[in-house]
């Protein structure tokens, strides 16, 4: 890899560290290619990404970014899992770690806050952005449906009373 390629890689990594809601650092030593492909597929499904980069270049890219605290975790065979959604990448690595004992989560960073192993686990248990939006919409929509039901109820009651009277008259 020549100097221009390294500079381009450092720039790409810097953009990742700047724009990601969460970055999780894990050790993948001992995983097969098929297992890494499985991790990448799970990440794609959750709108997250997986990146293996040279630790030295990643440390250079981290300088001055909100994720700067993860520099100490970059030692050995590390993989970065990241997403714009502050929960997606953490959920992906936690699920993958349950199935693969060789995969070790070291820590991460969420919005400028350093996360240790327990922090990544706690973030993975939080509801995702989509789940939060759905629950908020449900809370907003429930009173409106109750009001519509209350307004429509007297009319349906009157209609049923009228039909009962009509049946008795006939």
Describe this structure in words.
The protein is of the alpha+beta class and 170 residues long. It is built from 6 helices and 5 strands. It folds into 2 domains: 3-126, Ribosomal protein L10, N-terminal RNA-binding domain (Alpha-Beta Plaits, 2-Layer Sandwich); 127-170. Strands 2-3-1-4-5 form a 5-stranded antiparallel beta sheet. Helix 1 packs across helix 3 and helix 4 crosses helix 5 (117-124). The longest helix has 41 residues, at 129-169.
Strand content: 5-15%
Low-confidence parts lasting 5 or more residues at pLDDT below 50?
A: none
Question: Which whole number gives the mean pLDDT?
Answer: 85
Distance between the termini: 94 Å
**CATH topology call of the largest domain:** Alpha-Beta Plaits
Strand order of the largest sheet: 2-3-1-4-5
The total number of structural domains is 2
Biggest sheet descriptor: 5 strands, antiparallel
Tally of individual helices: 6
Radius of gyration: 26 Å
Superfamily at the CATH H level of the largest domain?
Answer: Ribosomal protein L10, N-terminal RNA-binding domain
CATH architecture of the largest domain: 2-Layer Sandwich
Shape: elongated
Helix content: 55-70%
Q: Which structural class best describes the helix and strand composition?
A: alpha+beta
Q: Give the CATH class of the largest domain.
A: Alpha Beta
| SSE arrangement, N to C | HEHEHEHEEHH
């Amino acid at each position: 890899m020549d100097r221009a390629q390294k500079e381009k890689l450092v720039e790409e990594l810097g953009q990742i560290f700047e724009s990601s809601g969460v970055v999780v650092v894990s050790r993948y030593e001992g995983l097969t290619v098929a297992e890494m492909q499985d991790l990448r597929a799970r990440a794609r499904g959750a709108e997250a990404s997986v990146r293996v980069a040279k630790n030295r270049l990643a440390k250079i890219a981290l300088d001055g970014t909100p994720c700067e605290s993860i520099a100490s975790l970059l030692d050995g065979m590390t993989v970065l899992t990241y997403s714009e959604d502050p929960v997606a990448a953490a959920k992906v690595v936690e699920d993958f770690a349950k199935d693969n004992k060789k995969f070790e989560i070291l820590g991460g960073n969420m919005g400028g806050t350093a996360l240790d192993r327990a922090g990544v686990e706690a973030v993975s248990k939080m509801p995702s952005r989509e789940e939060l939006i759905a629950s908020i919409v449900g809370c907003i929509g429930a009173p409106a449906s109750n009001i519509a039901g209350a307004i429509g109820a007297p009319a349906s009651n009157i209609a049923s009373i009228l039909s009962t009277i009509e049946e008795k008259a006939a």
